[in-house]
Amino acid sequence: MPDPLVEAQQQEVVHPERCIQLSRLFLQRELADKVLPTLTQNPSAYRETSERFRTRQQSVEATLIVGSCLHRVQLEDQEAQMFEQAAQDAKKFRLPTLEAMAYFQLGRHALQQQKYATARESLQQLQTIVTHNQVSNPLLPFYAQLLQAGLSIELRQFDAAKTELASLNSQLKSSELPPGLTIAILTMNGDYDLGMQHQELALANYADALHLASSQDDLLAQIDLAENISRIFEQQGDLKQALHFSELACDQLQRLGNAEWLAQGLIRLAELNRQANDANLALSLLFNALDIYRTTTRPQALSKLNHEIGKTYLKLGNLAAARTYLIAAINGYKLHRDAQGELASQVTLSELYLRKNEPEMAISLLESMPAPQKGSEADLERHYLLAEAYEHKGQYLQALSHLKLFAATPHNSHLSDNPTQNSNDQFRDNYLRVELERNVDSLRNQQQQLAAERTRYLWLTAVTTLLIGVLCYVLLQMNRRQNQSRANMSQLKEQLGQAPFSHLPNQYQLHEALALLEKDPATGFCEQDDTTEYHARHFIHISIPALRRLCERVGTEKAEQLQQALTDKLIALCATDEQLYQLAESRFLLLQPHTAETTLVASAEAWSARLTPLLMELQLDSRVVMGLVHFPFLTRCPRAVGSQQVVELSLIALAAADQIAEKCQQTSWVELSAIDCQQAAFFNGVFRTQALRAIDKGLVKVNALHGKHLIDWQQIV
Predict the structure, then answer these.
(1) What angle do CA 311, 317, 319 make, to 5 degrees?
(2) CA–CA separation, 72 vs 20, rounded Å?
(3) 430/343 Cα distance (integer angstroms)
């Protein structure tokens, strides 16, 4: 007859519910206070007593097995109780090895639940046992170090985590550790790199661990590592690789045989396919998961699945089916008291009402729902949808309010301006923005007054029919004024995106273009082809010294005339596929496509040749200063350095060129380009600082019209 504990362990992964049942049935046996007879001593007595009694060691082992199985079925509270019970029993029975294993499991559970005080206490208990007791498992000190490193990473104490990992990594090189422990150490190294935002290094460690897990046929490790790698590629926008590793995880889940885990893997794979605009395949995967969940004993898992099916039907445009599944998801989340899931489903249902052109329903649902956590995805979507719904209803003040709340959240990044920008430029820009905000407030007050007048005259209509003609006239006038107010507000918004005097698009429109590029490269000036690589672009940052402090030198009126004349000529010189932005009084950014016939330097010199006679015609200093950067910057990893970071590189190049121009008193340009073997990981951290380090180390090539020895990089910070 097989050992019931061995049989329970065999069911732990595939059928955790069966494992719990067998282990708890074993724990109902009577606890033996003395040593049971062995099979060699008395076979008949052994069989009789082994079916009736349990030893102290078996009791603790069975309790640990129950805790592990409860983790598999996501019953976290009961899981912690079983590990605590196992630790107490092991201490009472003087079984230090099992007590240490219980505290390791308890600490790992607390870490996953973000209960850091409990995790730290469990770690201290584990370290005390390992230090002061003779334990039979020689791997327990390594487990303690792994738990310490994991806690330090979660608390963002990366120096302490680095110390622990250094000790573990030295053991990998100096001793023969079991494959399972080696995989755990490599995985923890990946977690550390991910916490430090070194995604390329994290991928390398996860890949090494995955290779070892594959060679050992460790299915659980392969599944976890493949999902980790998939999520990193998803964050990088590489959906092709994310799908590949998610499919790998599903393949191993199917081999494992745990139906519910396979369903979760299919949901994850469906989400990625929906992001990749293959909603039909996503829907097929979700219904496969639905067939699995209908056979399980945990119906609460159906809520998330119904939500995903509803989102997929919404993407396909089947609004009726989407509404059915979203309502089912909301009801399921309410039943199981999952507030976050309920909020997410309500937000998606509001989006559906907007698609149906029912903004009143969307507003009613969004305004009545509890406020999500500030800065969360649900909070962002709520403000965005409310702004859209109020705009559909013509309630522009409310729409503007929610749009500002959406824009003010930390998800929006802003272009950093040149730190050496002229103080007069800053003063002028700030002054204009204050004036525009003041005008917006004035328009808001006008709209409130108009609303009050409308209410008063509508009441007078009910009093007497003799004033209908007068009231109609008043209402028409009010409507005209309201339309004028809307037109004025629209004009003010447009002015915010234009540079003073020249009316060229400014840094705000550039920011929107770059943000659109990062969101969907196919719709911006940097498209994606079938290989998901960027088409090349030239970033030419132009500074015209003659325009600096122009207002102070010649007066506002004369400065406006000169800038307008120069701008008109610049616009006329721009090709249809070129984009010109004015970022400051004397600074412009030109974006143009790269062709095989024209290099970046050639384009810059061509533009310099065009600008020089224009400036001379206007009787201005003919010097032109340019900073040149090619996009993408890293050809091997085109996504590693984004378009906003390329703008920052062009500013560095412009500053260097400006130094040369001041010393030589003539036109100058500086080009920055990466060496072919440059790694993306070098730019992790504060980008400007890392870029200057790369220039200093020779990892970024510097090309200049005049001697690049004239550049003092220490002055560029």
Answers:
(1) 70
(2) 10
(3) 39
Residues 56 and 80 occupy one common structural domain: yes
Shared-domain flag, residues 438 and 490: yes
The enclosing H or E element of 539 equals strand 537-543
What gap in Å lies between CA 165 and CA 190, rounded to an integer? 11
Best CA proximity match to 654, nearest among 423, 418, 422, 429: 418
Domain boundary among 496, 528, 547: 496
Same domain, 614 and 700: yes
| Backbone phi, psi, residue 630, to 5° | -90, 140
Can you read off the two tokens belonging to residue 636? 């091997």
Identify the DSSP state of 672. E
Asked if the structure places residue 270 within a domain, the reply is no
d(CA 332, CA 316): 23
CB within 8 A of 158, min separation 6: which ones? 152, 192, 195, 196
Same domain membership, residue 599 and residue 668: yes
Provide the H-helix boundaries in 393-525. 396-407, 423-463, 468-496, 507-519
Indicate if 513 and 621 belong to the same structural domain: yes
Please give the pLDDT value at position 487: 72
> In degrees rounded to 5, what are phi and psi of residue 537?
-140, 155
Query: Do 30 and 53 fall into the same domain?
Result: yes
Rounded Cα gap, residues 571 and 170, in angstroms: 62
Alpha helices in 133-178, H assignment, sequence order? 140-154, 158-174
Instruction: Enumerate the β-bridge partners of residue 582.
Output: 588
Cα separation of 185 and 164, whole Å? Answer: 10
Residue 474 lies in a domain: yes
My answer on whether 598 and 690 are in the same domain is: yes
Structure tokens at 512: 């929107």
d(C-alpha 264, C-alpha 249), whole Å = 11
DSSP run (H or E) holding 589: strand 587-593
Residue located via tokens 């078996």: 58
The C-alpha angle with vertex 196 and arms to 647 and 640, in degrees rounded to 5, equals: 35
Rounded CA separation 343/364 (Å): 14
Q: Is the pTM of this model over 0.85?
A: no
Q: For position 657, which CATH number holds?
A: 3.30.70.270
CA-CA distance, 335 to 345, in Å (whole number)? 14
**Low-confidence residues in the chain, pLDDT < 50:** 1-2, 35, 39-40, 412-439, 520-533
Which pLDDT does position 652 carry in this prediction? 92
Spatial CA neighbour of 218 closest among 180, 185, 177: 180
Q: Domain check: are 527 and 601 in the same one?
A: yes
Give the number of domains in the chain: 3
Query: Which of 77, 93, 109 represents a domain boundary (last residue)?
Result: 93
pLDDT computed for residue 409 by the predictor: 64
- Boundaries of domain holding 607: 507-715
